[in-house]
Design goal:
Blueprint: E1 18-19, E2 22-23, H1 26-43, H2 50-65, E3 69-71, H3 78-84, E4 86-90, E5 94-103, E6 113-122, E7 127-135
Parallel strand pairs: 3-7
Antiparallel strand pairs: 1-2, 4-5, 5-6, 6-7
Helix pairs in contact: 1-2, 2-3
Bound molecules: zinc ion (ZN).
Length: 137
């Protein structure tokens, strides 16, 4: 039987917790993911390169799995951050990004409103803040 892949840990891994195919126990799973988030954040120089892709991947995964505090009248999911967010900008504590949403689509034609949400992520405090919403044209 495999043990947790964290160096020196003899614990049996959680059968649902994998990082890049390697199994981990619950505490080490979170520690390793947080380390990778911070590492990719430090390596990310603001360009859309592999470091950015890693940062976005770990941000999406951690904020969703750890249920980071969300401030504002909306919500984010792992899918939204990973697939729909754009215009990422690096900040001192994390990043800011935008997501376009289509509201009221169930009310029929002519009622749809597209809004652009502007979010800020703080990876130290584990908080996602909705800064503003603007109508998209
Ligand atoms: Zn472990």
């Amino acid at each position: 039987m495999d043990t947790c892949h964290f160096e020196g840990c003899e614990t049996q891994p959680n059968e649902h917790l994998f990082i890049d195919g390697d199994p981990y126990c619950s505490p080490h799973y979170n520690i390793v993911l947080e380390d990778r988030l911070k590492e990719s954040f430090q390596n990310w120089d603001g360009d859309s390169d592999q470091d950015f892709e890693n940062f976005r991947k770990y941000l999406a995964r951690l904020s969703d799995e750890q249920r980071w505090t969300t401030k504002g009248d909306s919500f984010l999911s792992q899918y939204r951050i990973k697939k729909r967010a754009y215009d990422f900008e690096k900040t001192d504590e994390g990043c800011e990004f935008k997501i376009e949403r289509h509201l009221n689509t169930w009310e029929g034609t002519g009622k749809q409103r597209d809004v652009i949400e502007h979010w800020r992520a703080n990876i130290e405090d584990k908080v996602l803040v909705l800064l503003d919403k603007t109508n998209s044209s």
